[in-house]
């Protein structure tokens, strides 16, 4: 019987080194539409910030670290941790959640 894989895990070796990983749930189309609709209907709505909030909600676990090797908080526990990521790391996570390469590994 088919079973949807709602939680996925990928390695992130080139971004965060050996044994690094991210556990996430893919975004649903309706969530993406909601952000887009809010930004179109409300000029004061910041789609980038809305997207980051959704990204934080979908990252369930990771073992990422900062430049000094200190563990980063999980985005679901502290969404401000996304401010410490590089644009490359955020782009990678966004691509994961949007399904741009289901088996995306770097």
> What distance separates the N and C termini?
31 Å
Overall average residue pLDDT: 87
Q: Residue ranges: pLDDT <50 for 5 or more in a row?
A: none
Strand arrangement, major sheet: 1-2-3
Please, how many domains?
1
What class, by secondary structure content?
A: alpha+beta
Total number of beta strands: 3
Order of helices and strands: EHEHHEH
The helical percent reads 25-40%
Topology:
Blueprint: E1 8-11, H1 13-16, E2 21-24, H2 29-41, H3 47-58, E3 59-62, H4 87-97
Antiparallel strand pairs: 1-2, 2-3
Helix pairs in contact: 2-3
Structure, briefly:
The protein has 106 residues and is an alpha+beta fold. The chain is built from 4 helices and 3 strands, in the order βαβααβα.
Report on the architecture of this protein.
With about 110 residues, the protein is of the alpha+beta class. α2 (about 30-40) packs antiparallel against α3 (about 45-60). The longest helix has 13 residues, at about 30-40. A three-stranded antiparallel beta sheet has the order 1-2-3. It has four helices and three strands; from the N terminus they run βαβααβα. Helix content is about 40%, strand content about 10%.
